């Protein structure tokens, strides 16, 4: 257990659905991240939050909408997704958002868009 | 676009063998290099964060070296065990952005009993 949990672990949704992914960290960290791993591609950073403020948006389409209500919780709201958005979505947290900070990852949500 | 390359893509070794793999990254604007170990159906687990040229880090049978001038890092596993089977990821941090890790595609290690 890394202290970072994600729900749900698996999700199937249609292109017209709206769903949300949830991440919770129990480590007292101040920075949280969303990553995406598509098939046969490296892990790709989507968003960075530091002290509940978004500090990095890695050119992610607006159909992905992050929300960080407090330093322990991070959501990724999904709407009108495309089949190519099917991927593993990983959440991570770190003490701060500095470049040398170790990031602690959750187990991921496997998303299938039909 | 940052290019982080890992080689080989996959590796099969016998229990007891020692092995190593490579992570190549841009040699300019370096800040940190992370190594992670990712077992199937589990969370990626941090192994090392390396920041200084010439750094060597060790954790049990696993060690890593760093050469920032030529842009590479090696990960070594001594006396591989079946439980070492996992994907090993490196991630480069450069520039001035917040903790933005650029990952390589990983090396998949399988250790056969």
- Helix vs. strand class of chain A: mainly beta
| Proportion of residues in β-strands of chain B | over 45%
The rounded distance between the terminal residues' Cα atoms of chain A is 31 Å
- Residue share in helices of chain B? under 10%
Counting helices, strands and paired strands, the structural category of chain B is: mainly beta
Tell me the β content of chain A.
over 45%
List the secondary-structure elements of chain B in sequence, H or E.
EEEEEEEEEEE
Number of continuous helical runs of chain A: 0
What's this entry about, in short?
Chain A has 114 residues and is an all-beta fold. Chain A contains no helices and 11 strands. In chain A, strands 2, 4, 5, 6, 9, 10 and 11 form a 7-stranded mixed beta sheet that branches.
Describe the protein's architecture and organization.
- The complex is a heterodimer of chains A (114) and B (113).
- In chain A, the strands form two sheets. In chain A, strands 2, 4, 5, 6, 9, 10 and 11 form a seven-stranded mixed sheet that branches.
- In chain A, strand 5 and strand 6 form a beta hairpin.
- With 114 residues, chain A is mainly β.
- Chain B has 113 residues and is mainly beta.
- In chain B, strands 2, 4, 5, 9, 10 and 11 form a six-stranded mixed sheet that branches.
- In chain B, strand 7 and strand 8 form a beta hairpin.
- The mean pLDDT of chain B is 93.
- The chains are: A mainly beta (114), B mainly beta (113).
- The interface between A and B is medium-sized, with 30 and 26 residues.
